[in-house]
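Hey all, sorry for the wall of text incoming. These are the two entities for the joint prediction.
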Amino acid sequence: MPPVARMLTRSGTAGAPERSDASRNRELLLRTARRLVDELGVAALSMDVLAAEAGLGKGTVFRRFGSRAGLFTALLDEYERDFQAACLSGPAPLGPGADPVDRLIAFGHERLRFTAERGHLLREANARPTTVNPASGFSRLHLRVLLQALDAGGDAEVLAYQLHAALEVPLHFHLDGHLDGVAPLTAERFAAGWTDLVLRVARR
Amino acid sequence: MPPVARMLTRSGTAGAPERSDASRNRELLLRTARRLVDELGVAALSMDVLAAEAGLGKGTVFRRFGSRAGLFTALLDEYERDFQAACLSGPAPLGPGADPVDRLIAFGHERLRFTAERGHLLREANARPTTVNPASGFSRLHLRVLLQALDAGGDAEVLAYQLHAALEVPLHFHLDGHLDGVAPLTAERFAAGWTDLVLRVARR
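and here's what came out:
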């Protein structure tokens, strides 16, 4: 039986019980932060603005997240959780039920979109794209499970590392702030390149 | 005509003329530093030890390299230059003359070996594996030229980014200091995985 990919996020707070008012505050703050990011962009989101918009004290915001970077890490965790849920139990082809090749293609496209949309958050959270952060662990594990289901031979674990690295290319550009200058490559070319790579790897 | 890969290194000092005694000192210091690294390891190499071993003043060492990290960057440039020369004009299959698939395989294996041997230097130089450093530029360009020679179709530039990222996986582990703990993957598995990936990408 292939290993089942578990939800893995950066802050790892899922298992820690919180007092119910603290938990409510956290939810309210994250919901408010998501709305502010959607409406005004990441740059406009400060601890002051968040406290005011949520109707809570600034001290509460700092107690919850420690710093602005901590807030962005928590936000990223939220998005990551949604993404992982969609992969594990959402509709096909991202979720279960489709051909593994189609699922691999869908996974990459969704991940590339995630990176494109959340790259600014990653930058603010000072998150580095590394092979050892928990979110990367989920991606690699998910890729490995799909590669094994594909029955394409080879070393599925190493292939998962290789494919995962290929998906993180645009993330590096985001973090280095060179997306437009150095790489004249569009999101469309990366997405098409992912489909092509999966088909080659799957020998289809 | 495909673009010709040029020598690209981090410090970019190749074109800057130096006064001849300064140039001689630099050569002597780098030669001495390489010997010390080979004999004693990176950890033992300090600015003091280097000055004493080279028979020069400590001030000269600092003037040449600025800092210990600067010294390691210069050392890396030396190794990178050797590596690039071997790819561009060394014996086949790494150098010209062999089938593009064999050259791609040889390139990856040599690059993985380079990373394994120089990972500790990269760590000391605080160099991050990014898609935008000049050494990465050389690798991507070289990969693209070989992919185009291969005539395997697809978007050779995007494929080059993807393959390049796959080769940098062990570098991330080195920089995060997790090579042994988190990844139970050996250098041999990565090397075999590279051969497999190239054959799939080349549809052979």
